[in-house]
Write a structure and sequence with these properties.
Elements (H helix, E strand, L loop, with lengths): L1 H12 L3 H4 L10 E5 L3 E5 L10 H25 L1 H7 L9 E3 L2 E6 L8 E5 L8 E4 L1 H5 L5 E8 L5 E8 L5 E7 L5 E9 L5 E2 L3 E8 L8 E9 L8 E5 L7 E6 L5 E8 L4 E8 L8 E7 L3 E7 L2 E7 L5 E7 L2 E9 L6 E7 L3 E8 L2 E8 L4 E6 L5 E6 L6 E7 L6 E6 L5 E6 L9 E9 L5 E9 L10 E4 L14 H8 L3 E5 L9 H5 L7 H16 L8 E6 L1 H12 L6 E5 L18 H4 L5 H10 L13 E7 L8 H11 L8 E6 L10 H18 L4
Parallel strand pairs: 33-34, 33-35, 35-36, 36-37, 37-38
Antiparallel strand pairs: 1-2, 3-4, 4-5, 5-6, 7-8, 8-9, 9-10, 11-12, 12-13, 13-14, 15-16, 16-17, 17-18, 19-20, 20-21, 21-22, 23-24, 24-25, 25-26, 27-28, 28-29, 29-30, 31-32, 32-34
Helix pairs in contact: 3-13, 4-6, 4-13, 8-9
């Protein structure tokens, strides 16, 4: 009896969720903008755009305190952190060959970012730490090593890193294999590759206009090892057109430097090259003002291998002779059975990967266009990390899916034999889970692919907890990759559903264009139609349906929730743009006017106003429960999009469902980069969803 009495007291004293959710008032200060002398837009929370003001900081702290308490209780209820961690597969990733060494990333400490490791043999178990972000770079900041490039002689490695999640990068250089750090240190780098040539490398910088100012005015430089950054040679800039951006590379033999200039405002692409074997090497035009996509992959016998889209937007592989740059020789025509994902050129053949309705295809083709080998994979999956050097006969790739941990294959491009060389072990039986491939009808009779992940023999009784997700933007093909969070959700009786909505590239370029620009509403219509289909087919009902998405996918779920709040029980937008009228004024937003539209054009402005989630919150609607997730240093989608969205949702009498804001500190667009923080983010999202759907 005494035990029961004590237990009852503890139970009664345990805080309830309703006690932990209290409205946090946000001051309203009306700001009005007038567009085209007709449209008056009110913004009562513009002051939250001042992210460093004491008032904003205090408001965020209160929001984090409330959401933190709420999520801790939900996490205890669902045991999300421990179960997601249990099935997490990567403490280190698989070794990649660069020159004569093998490199991999590893979490040597779960509290800091991953270290870069070096090995002299792919199969050697002992890996040496080459760069430790905590001891070699900073003990104060959260450091993420985002990439690296090895010099052709494999004596030096240049690596990029970020501080506290920002998109702004720095570059350091070490000797191989010792890891000795050189004095070379570069700053102001953003969205830049590193391309080695002899004793130095190319890189690019932008001018920074405050924390969230527009990103423009890109410049490409060449850095010679041993010089200071002030001594670096300016290679290319467009001061009269600061909105354009550049990509560049050196070919595998380092004979050519290639620079691609993209002018998204005018929808044009230009390609320039420098031939270091010529008597007078200088940057000269190859193709200018091209109205379709063009990407140089590599060179072969003094000619370029390139991906060029045709009039429909489908990619084909061509050979371009710089002496006759407009007389292309087609090597690979556009594919009808799938979307071309990757091309890896070798000495006498190419390896290509396609994605066809969530199924990968591996091809080996000669430079005369002959198909030498084709391998199809029967289950829903994707191929990642296609890697191998041009002179090799072997290529490695990773095959994975949402519930299938990465499997590493080694594939001989001459004999076409493949074998599994590494397999990730996790403590669950993924044979107990299955995938269901469906199609549903959206607006105008369009058929949209939908994949369900669930336990075997799922009952369609209308009461299954379902989590619906999508991306649907920028022509991105949404390929499945392993997620221990999904396993946690499905093992507890849930169904994970992913819709390949328009705006993504899953069914080719026409599919992408149908959800872009003036057609952006199609993406939201497709997502809403997926929710309706799952309800109509008796998989679930609105009391058991949740939605989540990140970045553009976050916009999709936020727009769907504001347009059709009756369909969802819980919604989690992650780093989502929600104020679409002001989106283009900050960081890289102006680069995406082709995707979303611009408020400087009257017709485009009206479309933005009609779907912008922040501007479509109605005073008398009780929206679904939401956990809105962002990061304080997200300079891709500034966090005040989420701040303003939450403030407007919370500060209405009609809103009785919980609206929580989680702001991750020292993190950016991809959240925290440590092992623990990445698990915690997943635990927060899935704890919230599972609690709201009543899952045990």
């Amino acid at each position: 009896m005494r035990f029961s009495f004590i237990f009852l007291i503890l139970l009664l004293s345990e805080p309830t969720f309703s006690q932990e959710y209290n409205l946090i008032p946000a001051r309203q200060e009306q700001v009005t903008d007038t567009f085209f002398n007709v449209h008056i837009i009110k913004d009562n929370y513009r002051w939250l755009e001042k992210t460093d003001s004491p008032e904003t900081i205090e408001w965020i702290a209160k929001q984090n305190e409330m959401s933190g308490n709420w999520l801790k209780k939900a996490e205890r209820e669902t045991n999300s952190f421990n179960e997601i961690d249990k099935n997490r597969h990567f403490r280190y990733n698989f070794p990649k060959k660069e020159g004569k060494y093998f490199f991999s990333f590893a979490f040597t400490d779960t509290r800091v970012g991953s270290s870069l490791l070096i090995n002299t043999s792919r199969n050697k178990k002992t890996r040496e730490i080459l760069i430790d972000p905590y001891n070699d770079i900073s003990r104060k900041d959260k450091i993420n090593i985002s990439g690296y490039q090895v010099s052709k002689n494999a004596e030096l490695l240049a690596y990029q890193f970020t501080r506290n999640g920002s998109d702004w990068h720095e570059v350091g250089v070490v000797r191989l294999p010792s890891g000795k750090h050189l004095k070379d240190h570069l700053e102001g780098i953003k969205f830049s590759g590193l391309a080695w040539h002899k004793n130095g490398f190319f890189y690019s910088v932008f001018e920074q206009e405050g924390k969230f100012g527009p990103t423009s005015g890109q410049k490409v430089f060449y850095h010679k090892i041993g010089n200071t950054q002030e001594m670096d040679e300016l290679i290319f800039e467009r001061p009269q057109r600061p909105w354009v951006n550049f990509d560049f590379t050196t070919t595998s033999d380092e004979r050519f430097f290639m620079l691609t200039e993209t002018d998204e405002r005018n929808d044009k692409v230009s390609v320039f090259y420098k031939d270091f074997n010529s008597h007078q090497p200088f940057l000269r035009p190859l193709i200018t003002n091209f109205d379709r996509s063009l990407q140089i992959i590599d060179s072969r016998d003094g000619k370029f291998i390139a991906l060029i889209s045709d009039e429909s937007g489908s990619n084909r592989v061509v050979e371009i002779d710089p002496a006759k740059p407009l007389q292309w020789r087609e090597i690979v025509p556009p594919f009808s059975e799938g979307v071309l994902m990757d091309v890896a050129p070798y000495i006498d053949r190419m390896v290509l990967t396609l994605q066809s309705n969530n199924h990968p295809i591996l091809l080996v083709m000669g430079y005369d266009g002959t198909v030498l080998h084709q391998a199809k994979f029967p289950f829903i999956s994707s191929i990642h990390a296609l890697e191998g050097e041009p002179e090799d006969d072997m290529v490695r790739f990773i095959l994975t899916s949402w519930t299938v941990p990465p499997v590493v294959y080694e594939f001989n491009i001459k004999s076409f034999e493949k074998e599994i060389v590494e397999r990730t072990e996790v403590p669950f039986d993924f044979e107990q889970l299955e995938y269901t491939e469906l199609e549903y009808q959206s607006e105008e009779g369009v058929h949209v692919p939908l994949v369900l992940v669930h336990k075997k023999k799922v009952e369609r009784d209308g009461k299954n907890p379902v989590l619906l997700s999508a991306y649907g933007g920028f022509g991105t093909v949404s390929t499945p990759s392993y997620r221990s969070e999904i396993i946690h959700f499905v093992e507890h009786g849930g169904i994970f559903a992913f819709a390949n909505i328009r705006g993504g590239g899953d069914k080719g370029p026409k599919w992408a264009k149908a959800g872009k620009g003036q057609h952006k509403q199609n993406s939201f219509d497709d997502f809403i139609a997926a929710a309706e289909y799952l309800i109509d087919q008796n998989y679930t009902n609105p009391d058991f349906l949740a939605a989540t998405g990140g970045s553009n996918g976050g916009l999709v779920v936020a727009a769907a929730a504001t347009q059709r709040p009756d369909l969802f029980k819980a919604v989690v937008p992650v780093v989502a743009p929600t104020d679409m009228i002001r989106f283009e004024q900050f960081t890289v937003g102006h680069w995406h006017n082709d995707e979303y539209g611009t408020a400087t054009d009257s017709a485009s402005f009206c479309r933005l106003k009609d779907y912008s989630p922040f501007h479509n919150i109605k005073e008398k609607v009780n929206y679904p429960s939401m956990l809105v997730v962002t990061s304080e240093n997200d300079d891709r989608v500034p966090p005040f999009h989420s701040y303003k969205f939450v403030a407007r949702l919370q500060n209405r009498e009609a809103q009785t469902n919980s609206i929580l804001l989680k702001v991750e500190e020292k993190a950016g667009h991809y959240g925290g980069m440590t092992y623990s923080s990445s698990i915690q983010k997943g635990a927060d999202v899935y704890s919230f969803i599972m609690h709201e759907l009543g899952m045990e």
